[in-house]
Amino acid sequence: MNEQIKQDFIKAGKISAEALEYGKSLIKKGNSLLETTELIEKKIFELGGKPAFPVQISCDDIAAHFCAIEDDTTIFENQVVCLDLGVHVNGAIGDTAYTIDLSGKYDDLVKAAQKALEEALKVVVVGTELREIGKTIQDTIKSYGFNPVRNLSGHGLGLYDIHTSPTLPNFDNGDKTKLTKDMTFAIEPFSTTGAGVVGEKGHPTVFMMQHKKPVRSPITREVLKEIESYENLPFAERWLTRKFGAKANFALRELNQLSIIHQFPPLVETSKGIVAQAEHSIMIDDEGNVFVTTSL
Ligand code: MN
Ligand code: MN
């Protein structure tokens, strides 16, 4: 990894951490989920980064991929709120998440995910097998009496590539692949009161470019041009409807039918378990030094 890319990963991580702190201060009873989402996205730009993906605020049994549409009316009340955000600087990504329990009933669930992340970070060194990270997360979450979500995992962070190899499991999956020098990745334990499996459910509001292909419709072509400015990173339906109105929905439908974009519906715990998440991004440099880039 050259020095410039290394510095960009560090900068993206720092901006992510600051945006997360700001976001945490807004997740309070009575505040609007949509307004909070947009204030955080604005903050990311103000701090000198760009969103690596739209800000996700997933509540209760929704584990991930909930991204407000422009007329979302959710008000924070008694939810368990997972805030997940990503920042990129020249394509180098920081990805981080934190959970706030507004119900007062799930403090332990939040602690389980947080502690699992802390324990996992302790075993991050060159040579650690991926299964060891998974086992650490699983054992920690189980010690609180909850289950890890098994079909969500940490992931490599590439340049302009939010989900690349390796996959860092949230349970012992037997993968003996080792952490190496010159690696950037995110670790993200999810704890749940449920069985620990998520499935796609509901209206997708997050999309990503998949295959470039020519399109005929002028409306779709105009929207596609905007989508190309997101540089193959995930984007929100809301970003487009704010700019193009209902034309954006028409274009998204067409682009999805043509498999030019891929859609990501919300991921919901299938046994309706409440879910908490914690996440940090990590860089192991060429010398094997470990940096948690998204810690303040
Ligand atoms: Mn994330
Ligand atoms: Mn992630």
Describe this structure in words.
It contains seven helices and 17 strands. Strand 6 and strand 7 form a beta hairpin. The strands form five sheets. A five-stranded antiparallel sheet has the order 7-6-8-16-17. Strands 1-3-4 form a three-stranded antiparallel sheet. The two termini are 23 Å apart. Helices cover 33% and strands 28% of the residues. One manganese (II) ion (MN) is lined by residues 95, 155, 186, 188, 279.
Low-confidence segments, given as residue ranges, are none
The percent range for helix content is 25-40%
Distance between the termini: 23 Å
Largest sheet: 5 strands, antiparallel
How much strand content do the residues show?
Answer: 25-35%
Structural class: alpha+beta
Calculate the mean pLDDT score and round it.
97
The strand count comes to 17
Annotation field: number of helices = 7
| Small molecules bound in the structure, each named once | manganese (II) ion
For the largest beta sheet, what order do the strands appear in spatially?
7-6-8-16-17
Order of helices and strands: HHEEEEHHEEEEEEEHEHHEEEEE
Shape: globular
Q: How big is the Rg?
A: 19 Å
What would you say about this model in short?
This protein is of the alpha+beta class and 296 residues long.
